[in-house]
Amino acid sequence: MSIKAQIYAVLFLLFGLTGLPVAMASTLVYCSEGSPETFNPQLSTSGTTFDASSRQIYNRLVEFKPGTTEIVPGLAVSWEVSKDGLEYTFNLRQNVRFHNTAYFTPRRAFNADDVLFSFNRQRNASDPWYSVSGGVYKYYNDMEFNSLIKDVIKLGDYKVKIILSKPDSPFLSNMAMDFSSILSKEYADTMMKAGTPEQLDLKPVGTGPFKFVKYEKDAFIRYQAHPQYWRGKEKIDKLVFAITVDPSVRYARLRAGECHVMAYPLPTDIKSMKQNPSIIVDEQPGLNTAYWAFNIRKPPFDQVKVRQAMNYAINRHAIRDVIFQGTAKIATSVIPPSIWSWQGPDSTYTFNPDRAKTLLAEAGYADGFEIDLWAMPVQRPYNPNARKMAVLMQQDLSKIGIKANIVTYEWGTYLKKSREGEHQTILLGWTGDNGDPDNFFTPLLSCAATETGNNRSFWCNQRFDDLISLARIELDQVKRKKLYRLAEVIFKQQAPWLTIAHSVRYQPYLKNVQDLKIDPFGGIYFTGVSLK
Amino acid sequence: MPQLLLRRLLLVIPTFIGIVALTFFLIRLAPGDPILLIAGEHGVSAERYAELQQQLGFDRPIFIQFADYLWQVLNGNLGISVVTQTPVLEEFGKLFPATLELAILAIILAVVIAIPAGVLAAVKRNTLIDHSITAISLVGYSMPIFWWALLLILLFSVNLGWMPVAGRLNFIYDIDSVTGFMLIDTLIAGDREAFIDALYHLTLPAVVLATIPLAVITRMTRSSMLEVLKQDYIRTARAKGMSESSVIFKHALRNALIPVITVIGLQTSILMTGAILTETIFSWPGIGKWLLEAVYRRDYPVVQGGVLLIAGLVILVNMAVDVLYLVINPSLRQQK
């Protein structure tokens, strides 16, 4: 072979090498959207962090069945609730092994001490672990576990009792949330003794389907299947998160075969993805609601007819088509359809400018008025472009004689000022945490939430409030659904919001990926997934 | 020469204090609050907010916070990231090699092409060659980097499949990070295939990153050469009967290089501070993206510490350029 031919041969070999698809069949590469803040889900509220930690590495006592909001046993085999709804006794699973990693070799199986450790760290300010890694347990506090959980008691090596201060039907759902993940006490003790407690949060050890191997910030996370996983070893041997911040690049990597599954596609790319024969796009309505809230403390929004008029004035179909590129569901309820208490389609309010005008005239505003319309400065899961949405709404409003001035602030300031009630009307939204309807009603529309300011309408209706409080302590799901139906009737009639849309979540992946389930909470799980 | 360096070093002290003060107050003047941003739609209660402020040390009067920060910096402590709870210096140390590796490659690529191209354009002044080089460098200089990078990815990675889309190494290789430089680490690991794969991964980002410096250096070399070629000593050299190549490379280029080196120095410091767009598109784990994200999240310690470290690097590069002047231009040496 001449030298020239040899060079060509080498070049050919090189090009051939890089052209190879990602790897051997047992390695799955996921193009994720960013770096996790930590590997301890107790310390974070970010989905990116949960995807990288709790959803691959850890288990909870109870868990959501993959792809649903249904509760199934996790590290607890079974549980009993006392009649007054105040005491939950969990029977723990035996012979559950923690990960054996390069940095820790567990010597005992999972037991009640691990449960106590995981909750006490977040619960007791006097716990030596409380202040480690900043000690901010936001989700634990957001879900009101700080006031709800009175005590966590060990009744035996495999029996734990949690005592609540009041009955609370979303409690079990909250126990399936990421911050309720179970960490190893044995590992924690070892790290504390070594004087490096923060390692617990950076180099995780859990009981989950995958064990942590290596992390390089902004580059990748490597995992390996946990050989002694109590649900059985995963089919995927190695799992890699390839951190890829830009959504167009994630798509390019998927097309080039550099990853098998990608996070958060751009709405504008969905069409081309669906046309690509090697890509599958699953979809599901997201667990979120975008809304427009009217501050009833500021006239003219103290009048029901004005608020109702607003509900007739806005063309939500146009918003869906322009802002969401047709990829959203118009919201006719406070909660999205994926929650069990959703009451079905509702046609109380449709786009009807004439009806809006009549209502305004009846309220004494035949000549219209001027309002402030606050629009968020950032993209959120429930609203890809609030400012553009506000412009569309501005045009609709001008048709019924209302001049809307669009107002916006930096995101933190926006949330703070509106919490203090400075706005007249505001665009905002909510992403569900635990799949329970209470998780939308109480934080956003209760009388108590007018105090914290999370109720941006400052609307406090005693009957509505009584209904949602009753629903919160009622344990029977059928009765709860009825209570929520009554509450929603009041909500529609009083119209403190215009409910706008539930965005749809898309999950693109390559054809050779099997049994990937789209998660209603917006996360990603690789348990049960295999490669063809 | 040592005297000049000493004077430079002394100037560094007030510069540093100025940078510390500026970043500290500027980032706090910008609206936004890390606690509120972390809280998002959920919000925090007033008591909890006060508690968090105290934990993070944001509840103290701002001048006391500043004095404390300055003291910590003087002790070599740049603080801990509010978001990740990791020391700023540690994060910087892990990300900087990636930025540096890419920057070095890009600047080498730029210089190797730009200087000959600039010289050629100057020598062939007003010919088709000159016009083409000038036009191409103008296009390069005005190129929107984001678009250019995506274009290259679509062409070479997605359609032709010759180049990887993003990242530093194919995930079939698991190379231990020793130096943080992928080319060196793969050599240490003795994995030839991985080394070649790392080179492939470097190619597109380096080309993208080199585009603007390439254009700038080409134009600078050309105009500087034109300036020098008009000088009397060039005419003298030619009159002496020296060969044209000796005139151009020995007499003209060496003198023309002085402003070019200034530009190379400036471009190098820009590249070392992290190329946000290039790093984002090629998923390159460098400091540009890190710093940008910290600004978004109002992660004060990272912004302050990151800017300070980068400022230090820029000062270092500038000093290196000063030393290079002395090496290249003997007349400067004699003045001192």
How does this model look, in words?
The complex is a heterodimer of chains A (532) and B (336). Chain A is of the alpha+beta class and 532 residues long. Chain A is 33% helix and 21% strand. Chain A is built from 20 helices and 20 strands. In chain A, the strands form 5 sheets. In chain A, strands 12, 13, 14, 15, 16, 17 and 18 form a 7-stranded mixed beta sheet that branches. A 5-stranded mixed beta sheet of chain A has the order 8-9-10-1-11, covered by helices on one side. Chain A has a 4-stranded antiparallel beta sheet with strand order 4-5-7-6. In chain A, a hairpin with a 3-residue loop joins strand 8 and strand 9. Chain A starts with a helix and ends with a strand. About 3% of the residues of chain A have low confidence. With 336 residues, chain B is mostly helical. The mean pLDDT of chain B is 87. The chains are: A alpha+beta (532), B mainly alpha (336). At the A-B interface, helix 1, helix 5, strand 10, helix 10 and helix 16 of A face helix 2, helix 3, helix 5, helix 7 and helix 9 of B.
Q: Short description, anyone?
A:
Chain A is α+β, with helices and mostly antiparallel strands.
